[in-house]
Amino acid sequence: MLLNNDQSPWMDEELSIMREAVRKFIEKEFSPSAKKWEKQGYVDRDAWLKAGQSGLLCASIPEKWGGGGGNFKHEMILVEELSYAQITGFGNGVHSGIVAHYVNSYGSEEQKAKWLPKMASGEIVSAIAMSEPGTGSDLQSIGTTAVLHGSHYKLNGQKTFITNGMSANLICVVAKTDPEEKAKGISLIMMETESVEETGGFTRGRNLEKLGMKAQDTAELFFDDVEIPVGNLLGPIEGKGFVQLMEQLPQERLIIASGACAAIESALRITSEYVKERKAFGKRILDFQNTQFKLAERYTEAKLARTFVDQCAMQLAEGKLDGATAAMAKWWTTQKQCEIVDECLQFFGGYGYMMEYPIAKMYADSRVQKIYGGSNEIMKLLIAREI
Ligand SMILES: Cc1cc2nc3c(=O)[nH]c(=O)nc-3n(C[C@H](O)[C@H](O)[C@H](O)COP(=O)(O)OP(=O)(O)OC[C@H]3O[C@@H](n4cnc5c(N)ncnc54)[C@H](O)[C@@H]3O)c2cc1C
Questions:
Q1: Whose CA is nearest to atom 38 of ligand 1?
Q2: 231: number of Cβ within 10 Å
Q3: How far is Cα 91 from Cα 217, in angstroms, rounded to an integer?
Q4: 3-class secondary structure for 256-277?
Q5: How many domains, in total, are found in the chain?
Q6: CB-based contact 275:291 (threshold 8 Å)
Q7: Do 13 and 36 share a structural domain?
Q8: What 8-state DSSP symbol labels residue 26?
Q9: Which of 61, 145, 188, 285 could be disulfide-bonded to 234 (CB atoms 3.0-4.6 Å)?
Q10: What is the CATH number of the domain that holds 12?
Q11: ∠ at Cα 252 (27, 67), nearest 5°?
């Protein structure tokens, strides 16, 4: 087998068992609803609860807080298996891979006890709200403010493109507690939507219509004097939000890179099957040297991507992955994902353009990988800074 991630050096027996269980869960509980979710533009709420019951949420959060007690390798298995099954709408990467880790790393004991067990059970679905209509890449210039008034912050501003934005009931809002400052004025404020729905000022805008990732809800959020208790600040003091974001971003970037690797492998697998079946001019498409050479090149790149991401995953699990290397993994694997999926689609001819063929969905779903989680241009800036 040219592509077999069970050969990854970080895999072991326990992780193989987990992979098998996750695969079966997705086949049984998610795949039958996938088309419906794509049509309606969101994943059903009970999918989160089922995932929670089966131990799929917060896999890398300590057991003490209701999590699985694993590490990044466990998250990686989930990302990969969801990608192989083409379930691109279930925003668990954001929920378990990102927001839960902000709470776990910077939350007080009280905050962890309040939110993490419910995040692990699926009673809480979370989102992270950084991007705004006026700024995405330049995070230091955000305009959302959270100004202290006695025992509450008053949150004002607007966010956009927020994954899980429609379904989330816990949102980590990136806001300026000191609007006069740039990075030093940024804090992370946890907004519990149920409590602010009572006091008012918070509204969700449209569930945005996207090119791909149709089942993932991606929303606009509006804050108009929303009152958030001072105890919902993440971390003991204000102004640490930018540093907290920077510390956690390598994990977010590796989640994206790991999804990219899995998508590349899937695309090559389904394309290899197709070119062995489909015939033109009396030959299989695979018998043309053009097909053989192109696929040989792309299989090689798939192996390179896998080897690099595996190495990064092992470093991350040991707390040793640096930001520039994570940025390399994010930009390169997502660039390759888009190139490879596009080239694979070409081998399907007209069928590749039809949504009933998985390669067409993969093509639409891939494009955003070069944009979110920090655009690939920003990744190159981060790498260049270290040169
Ligand atoms: C489906 C989807 C889901 C998302 N989920 C979330 C989420 O959950 N939470 C969240 O906060 N955000 C989310 N985002 C937002 C995403 O992170 C931003 O779109 C991204 O960071 C880019 O910001 P922007 O769109 O404002 O582009 P801009 O910052 O306006 O950039 C526009 C272009 O200019 C380039 N550019 C910008 N600055 C530079 C520079 N210094 N040098 C060279 N080129 C530059 C960029 O690379 C890009 O190509 C999501 C986006 C999408 C599409």
A1: 137
A2: 12
A3: 8
A4: HHHHHHHHHHHHHHHHHHHHHH
A5: 3
A6: yes
A7: yes
A8: I
A9: 188
A10: 1.10.540.10
A11: 60
Q: Is 123 a catalytic residue?
A: no
3 state SS of 282: coil
Q: Quick check: 91 and 163 in contact, CB under 8 A?
A: yes
Q: At what angle do helices 323-347 and 241-277 cross, to 10 degrees?
A: 30
User: Which protein residue has the closest C-alpha to ligand 1 atom 35?
Assistant: 377
| Boundary residue ending a domain (188, 220, 239) | 239
Q: State whether the beta carbon of 218 lies less than 6 angstroms from ligand 1.
A: yes
pLDDT one-digit tens code per residue, 142-184: 999 999 999 999 999 999 999 999 999 999 999 999 999 999 9
Separation of alpha carbons 104 and 102, rounded Å: 5
Among the atoms of ligand 1, which is closest to the Cα of residue 174?
11
Contacts of 254 (CB under 8 A, 6+ apart): 72, 76, 309, 312, 313, 316, 321, 326, 329, 330
Q: Domain end: 91, 124, 157, which one?
A: 124
- For residue 138, the CA-to-ligand 1 centroid distance in Å is 9
Residue 369: domain span: 242-385
Question: What are the pLDDT digits (tens) for 301-337?
Answer: 999 999 999 999 999 988 899 999 999 999 999 999 9
Cα angle for residues 299, 337, 363 (degrees, 5° grid):
115
136 lines ligand 1 (CB under 6 A): yes
- Is 93 a pocket residue for ligand 1 (Cβ < 6 Å)? no
> Which amino acid is located at 334 in the chain?
T
pLDDT of residue 5: 65
Please report which residue ranges of the chain form alpha helices under DSSP H: 13-25, 34-40, 45-53, 72-84, 92, 100-106, 109-121, 193-199, 241-277, 289-317, 323-347, 358-366, 376-385
Distance 372 CA to ligand 1 centre (A): 6
Q: What is the Å distance from ligand 1's center to 136 Cα?
A: 5
pTM to 2 decimal places: 0.97
Backbone angles phi, psi at 132, to 5 degrees: -130, 165
Token duo for residue 352: 């590749």
